[in-house]
Amino acid sequence: MGLAGRLGDLGYNTQAMSEIHSSAPGKVILFGEHAVVYGRPAIAVPVVQVQATATVRADAPGSGLTLVARDLDVSVRLSDAPRDDPLAVIARLTLDRLGLAQPDASLTVHSTIPIASGMGSGAAVSTAVARALAAHLGHDLDPATVSALVYEVEKIHHGNPSGIDNTVVVYTLPVYFVQGRPAETFTIGAPLRLLIADTGIASPTRLAVGSVRQGWEQNPSQYEALFDWIANIVGRARAYLEEGMVGELGLLMDENHTLLGELGVSSLELDRLVRAARQAGALGAKLSGAGQGGNMIALVEAGVADTVARSLQEAGAVRVIQTVVE
Ligand code: PMV
To answer: Which long-range contacts (CB under 8 A, 24 or more apart) does 315-319 make?
Structure first.
């Protein structure tokens, strides 16, 4: 089988060999955010309705590698890119890993994943770039290698990331994650239909993580008890996910949201969206990710999805994405 066929089998999306496309999905955290920073488990799932893509095209000999992000109005040669530019970092890491010099090519990225919203856009862009560049050079990198490279770039975005984003995005499977342990991917027993609604309020992860840290320092026993309770929810959620017990998952989302409120990371806007989703017929709803703004998620049955999405918009959501996790 030729290279194009082999890459196709590996999930790479190829056209002519002079032009290579690769893509990676977004993600949301279903359960366990914040507690995961304190050694408890969390569960995240891929969101394939939004994608980052990278396209590599051969250029004239001697031109070197040019990185292009039209959405951000960026076009820079790899040799001129700042050391900490995330696109340049993943390109350099990939080339180093392969032990190859930069090709004469242009690498263009595009993403429909909302940025800075806890949906893993940075990890998805890096994943698409590493895969497309490797494929252009005639190599395929296994998922563990791509995940490790992407994690290095995540450190630039997030300082001390837990590693959940690169894992779920690279494997494109639900992930049960405990910091410092190899991530476990798993399959779910029944499809999950989720609405992901954005409060429109920017909330840097660092700040929300810092405010939980402050609370924990002031009241460690109360916070540890909340983290233990969340860990218990995550354990039950994994079993329900694997067994396809969707109704029970909704109740666990509600319970997890209450506990996140007690950790101080909900907000009036998040609570308003969570209430609106439940009143419109969602099986459960909670904030997702860092909180204090950002996104919430609602678990819905197909029949009420549009009604719940409308209610979320009426309650102030600036964007609602519908996704089905298979
Ligand atoms: O909003 P996100 O996807 O950056 O999620 C943050 C999740 C936290 O648990 C709050 C932090 C972390 O590093 O896991």
So the answer is: 315/272, 315/273, 315/275, 315/276, 316/199, 316/200, 316/269, 316/272, 316/273, 317/197, 317/198, 317/199, 317/200, 317/273, 318/198, 318/199, 318/200, 319/114, 319/197, 319/198, 319/200
